[in-house]
Specification:
Elements lengths: L1 H20 L4 H5 L3 E5 L4 E10 L3 E6 L4 E5 L3 E6 L29 E8 L6 E16 L3 E15 L2 E6 L1 E3 L1 E5 L5 E2 L4 E3 L2 E9 L2 H27 L10 H21 L4 E8 L2
Parallel strand pairs: 6-14
Antiparallel strand pairs: 1-2, 1-5, 2-3, 3-4, 6-9, 7-8, 7-11, 10-13, 11-12, 14-15
Length: about 270
């Protein structure tokens, strides 16, 4: 009997020791007095066992584990009641401001002073903007070429105007006539004075029509002389017929050359002082 009592007493002591070493219940874990907040955003709950400022912190976690954290990682270590509030959430990204389109590139301008070499002439300056060429063929006339040109008016001299710097083909118009292109292209850059000259050949063209009319009339009259004369003998003198034909053909060729004679415009370019 004494041995049995001793065995029962030993069993009770072992059971009590095991109960003392068992893990704490969950309500004990929740009552952890200290926290360690990390710069990374993490947080450890437990009891701080050791703290060396500037070096490290040792905390006994509620799970029974001991952790040592370098001071460089620690944001706060102390009582849970004195812990700072959690970091605020990052601000919502603001919409990117609308970017204004870049201003258009500045086009360099040429400043032009337009003059007429002959002050008595009313000259209007133009720039050539386009040209179209079409070809056709006729049964009697053969191949024909039709050319159409378009122009943009600058101003009537004397005047001043600004245009984008470029290389342009100019044209001049005398009075109310259509513009006539100036041979060659002109560089319009910087400050320039353009002095226009216009050779008017309209008198020559009028003379060509006069020669054509007079020559045709005279030549036809000469050719009719043998037919209108006395032909009782039955012999017809063909000499006037040949002479009249020569007069008509010669006057037609001469008048055609004069009628097709075009006006001759030109432009002198000098830097504006």
């Amino acid at each position: 009997m004494p041995y049995m009592r001793a065995a029962i007493l030993a069993a009770l002591l072992v059971t009590a020791a095991g109960a003392a070493s068992a893990p704490r219940p969950a309500h004990a874990q929740a009552a952890a007095p200290d926290v360690v907040m990390l710069h990374s955003g993490g947080m450890l709950r437990g009891t701080i066992a050791e703290s060396v400022p500037g070096e490290y912190v040792v905390i006994l976690l509620v799970t029974g584990e001991t952790r040592r954290i370098d001071a460089a990682e620690v944001k706060y270590a102390g009582l849970r009641a004195g812990a700072p509030p959690g970091a605020p959430p990052p601000p919502a990204a603001l919409p990117s401001p609308r970017r204004r389109p870049p201003p258009p590139a500045r086009v360099p301008m040429a400043r032009l002073t337009l003059e007429a070499a002959d002050p008595e002439q009313q000259l209007t300056f133009y720039t050539k903007t386009g040209e179209a060429v079409a070809s056709a063929w006729g049964y009697y006339s053969g191949a024909m070429t039709v050319r159409a040109q378009s122009f943009k008016k600058l101003c009537t001299a004397p005047c001043r105007v600004e245009v984008p710097e470029s290389r342009e083909t100019l044209a001049l118009a005398l009075g109310d006539r259509a513009p006539v292109p100036v041979p060659g292209a002109v560089d319009l850059r910087g400050d320039l004075t353009l002095r226009g000259k216009y050779k008017d050949d309209s008198g020559i063209r009028v003379g060509g029509w006069v020669i054509f009319g007079v020559g045709t009339a005279v030549g036809t009259g000469v050719m009719l002389v043998p037919l209108l004369g006395d032909n009782s003998s039955g012999d017809i003198n063909l000499t006037p017929l040949f002479i009249g034909t020569g007069i008509v053909i010669g006057s037609a060729i001469t008048s055609l050359i004069m009628i097709l004679n075009a006006d001759n415009p030109s432009v002198e370019t000098v830097p504006t002082p």
